[in-house]
Amino acid sequence: MSLRIIFLGTAASIPTSNRALSAVALKREGELFLFDCGEGTQRQMIKAKVGFNRKTRIFISHMHGDHILGLPGVLQTMSILGRDKPLEIYGPHGIAEFIESVKKTVGFSLRFPVKIYEVGEELLCQEDEYEIRSAWAEHSVPSLAYALIEKPRPGRFDPERAISLGVSKGPLWSRLQRGFEVRLPDGRIVKPEDVLGPERPGRKIVYVGDTKPSENIARFAFGADVLIHEATFAEDLAERAEEDMHSTPSGAAFIAKKAKVNLLILTHISARYSDPNILLEEAKRNFENVLVAEDFMKIDVPLKE
Ligand SMILES: [Zn+2]
Ligand SMILES: [Zn+2]
Fold first, then answer.
1. How many angstroms is it from 62 CA to the middle of ligand 2?
2. Distance between CA atoms of 171 and 178, rounded to whole angstroms?
3. How far is the centre of ligand 1, averaged over its atoms, from the C-alpha of 67 (Å)?
4. What's the half-sphere exposure (Cβ side, CA atoms, 13 Å) at 139?
5. Low-confidence spans in the chain with pLDDT less than 50
6. Which among 270, 275, 285 is positioned nearest to 231, based on CA atoms?
7. Ligand 1 centroid from CA 238, angstroms
8. What per-residue confidence (pLDDT) applies to 106?
9. Distance from C-alpha of 230 to C-alpha of 193, rounded to nearest angstrom
10. Which pLDDT value is given to residue 109?
């Protein structure tokens, strides 16, 4: 079960020659999840080959231009390329009016159904294998964080144990593997827990758009495999970060430590930092397992045993 994060845009506020505006793609099996959609996201999607016609959900953190101005272009290109599958867009209040007003003023129609959900802190979707939740971050306008949380997988099947209990190989094995009890020809019942190891935890990926270091996010991100967190300003501009309700690397690292995440990835990097090592070193003082995102950086998140 593959799960890959692809950073499409990692700049704050304005793009640079190396960094496009905020957008992160997450590919899980055949599905695409897109977090934020800064200007130029469609071109980054083409370069990264993420595709425009797969099952897709788009999550917008907040209504600042560097996070949403790429959305109309993505929608129009999807339509021109003949997308037929429905698309779901989630975001805070204002996202529906934004899309409607672009459709009206730019005069483009979409050939596929678009469902827009204005949301707060809630459970957004519930699928067999995962759910997606949102939580409030703390920024100068309402800003949401999103989490993809996989459900636990059944434990590993023990074939020798099954044989020793008299369960012959075949349909009974697959019933047990799927978590159902079976009745043997002699009338005995074998339960899944008799032949399965302990449940295996799913993966948890958390994306936080713009925010100052937030206790609510520390709770929301608890135990995440990957926390993608903004770090707009380095420590020398800590005051500015506080004023604008952004984070520094050490602020993001403090949250990662508090949330006991495995890996922290810093993004939303100000154009003034041509050398991201400054940010990396500042973060490492509080949290060791940290990366600074670059455009087109790919992170594969393995299944846990
Ligand atoms: Zn921003
Ligand atoms: Zn912002």
1. 7
2. 11
3. 6
4. 24
5. none
6. 270
7. 16
8. 92
9. 42
10. 85
Q: pLDDT at position 108, please?
A: 81
Angle between helices 71-80 and 41-48 (to 10 degrees): 50
Work out the mean pLDDT of the chain and round it to a whole number: 96
Question: Which-ligand-closest: CA of 13?
Answer: 1
The DSSP string of 177-215 is HTT--EE-TTS-EE-HHHHB-S-B---EEEEE-S----H
Q: Is 155 helix (H, G, I), strand (E, B) or coil?
A: coil
What pLDDT score does 24 carry? Answer: 98
Catalytic residue among 36, 66, 210, 225: 66
Q: How far is the CA of 117 from the centre of ligand 2 (A)?
A: 20
183-209 burial, b if ≥16 CB within 10 A, otherwise e?
eeeeeeebebeebbeeeeebbbbbbbb
Please count the other Cβ atoms lying within 10 Å of the Cβ belonging to residue 46. 12
Q: Which ligand is nearest to the CA of 139?
A: 2
Instruction: Give the whole-angstrom CA distance, residue 161 versus residue 157.
Output: 9
- Name the token pair of 194: 């008799």
CA of 213 to the centre of ligand 1 (A): 15
Q: Please give the distance, rounded to the nearest whole angstrom, from the Cα atom of residue 264 to the centre of ligand 1.
A: 18
Evaluate whether 146 touches 132 at the Cβ level (below 8 Å): yes
What's residue 304's pLDDT?
85
pLDDT of residue 178: 84
Cα 83 to Cα 54: distance, rounded to the nearest angstrom: 8
What is the model's pLDDT at position 135? 98
Q: How far apart are CA 111 and CA 81, in angstroms?
A: 10
Do residues 241 and 210 make contact, with C-beta atoms less than 8 angstroms apart? Answer: no
66 counts as catalytic: yes
